[in-house]
């Protein structure tokens, strides 16, 4: 007696012959098999012979047109495994602020999906679940992280995905996430900030804030500066690790112009040091997290509302724009990756722009309205 799971040439459901390439495997199970390049076979299970035949016809057409993609690798790997690989191979030198979004992806149900099921619909579900608990800006960062992982896998690991399912063109980002922050120091706020920072038990806190204003570096960039990274003769800073350049070993350090005021500040700081060997850190302010807590307390003590340390980069960029009027030159000093990023940090005071217009009228009276 023939086993019921053994393939047969007759469809028990209809009594008709099965299409070529289709096997009956049991009630509601029809396996369609197709030979592809290299002599390998692919197969799918369907509920009816008609659906199996349709899949065979579609697959044959894609093979003939050169549009077929073998999705078997996507069936054997989960989103969790993909993210894990990305963290191991690509994020060892990344800042912790980017790594911090990885657990949110791995702890969501999307992580258990095989890659073949990682569709735009699945990513939208991830977005909506995250939006229930977190701000729009945080959700966008996590979506962008997932999109970056997928894009890297497509470009570098030959993942057979024709379209990035997490890209902004596939999944709309939450509204309100791209709010342009424009906090700048007003009036005597800078003097008040320096005055209160001078009371810190870490004597370099004042110089660290001043350097942020005069040079416009990111906090992590300034924290990692060593005396060997400063070339006073060439007026240059050598930054081996920046936000926009993670593979310094391959590309070499990023060289930025050292502003005159920042140079004078560093020379003064060096003169006060008992030791300023090439490998010594320039600023002794403790850990990044400890400084952040300290800075927050100091701003409150100074009566400065809604001021973060990163706001000083906005302040620095806007001040430096008075010197470097060419945005391409300004970008070389601040280290922004493109003009669009630079625009987010350039926040001129309205009175300064008005003063420019008045000065222009005085020198060009014939252009008055």
How does this structure look, described?
- The chain has 3 domains: 1-68; 75-156; 189-358, hpI Integrase, Chain A (Orthogonal Bundle), CATH 1.10.443.
- It has helices at 49-65, 72-75, 79-90, 96-99, 102-106, 120-131, 136-156, 189-197, 204-215, 219-223, 248-251, 260-272, 288-301, 311-323, 327-334, 339-345, 350-363, and strands spanning 22-26, 29-35, 41-46, 230-231, 236-239, 254-257.
- The protein has 369 residues and is mainly alpha-helical.
- A hairpin with a 4-residue loop joins strand 4 (230-231) and strand 5 (236-239).
- Mean pLDDT is 83; it is low at 1-7 and 245-250.
- The strands form 2 sheets. Strands 1-2-3 form a 3-stranded antiparallel beta sheet, covered by helices on one side. It has a 3-stranded antiparallel beta sheet with strand order 4-5-6.
- It contains 17 helices and 6 strands.
- It comes from Acetobacter farinalis.
- Residues 1-21 are annotated as: Disordered.
